[in-house]
Amino acid sequence: MDIQDLLKNIKVLTEEQIERKLDELVKRNYHFSNLDEKNKKTVLNLINEYKDSIKHGIAITAHRIQRDIYPLYENRLSLGLTKKDIDDLKNILNAFKA
């Protein structure tokens, strides 16, 4: 399962099913493999915000993704994120773009 499969079915899935699929996605997606638990939770929190918007028919824009990534980039040293981590996060979030 990938993000596109999840997005295709998100409107018919229950909250529990979505959470389970997101957890599964995090465990299997290679972009998440180099992130520590704290940073995985940060990404999941962003994805959960996107999930709520998508379920209500609100498109995820490039501007919103940039706005969400910027604080992570700004605080990357204190968060323990590398440039590669930030690029991986961008790729993950860009999959939610309308």
List keywords for this structure.
98 residues, mainly alpha, 6 helices, 70% helix, globular
Give the arrangement of secondary structure elements.
Layout lengths: L2 H7 L5 H14 L8 H19 L6 H13 L1 H4 L3 H12 L4
Number of helices: 6
What is the percent of helical residues? over 70%
Query: Can you tell me the overall shape?
Result: globular
Order of secondary-structure elements: HHHHHH
Biggest β-sheet strands, sense, barrel? none
- Quote the average pLDDT: 83
Tell me what you see in this structure.
Helix 4 packs antiparallel against helix 6. The two termini are 19 Å apart. The longest helix has 19 residues, at 37-55. The protein has one domain (3-94). With 98 residues, the chain is an all-alpha fold. It has helices spanning 3-9, 15-28, 37-55, 62-74, 76-79, 83-94. The mean pLDDT is 83. It is built from 6 helices and no strands.
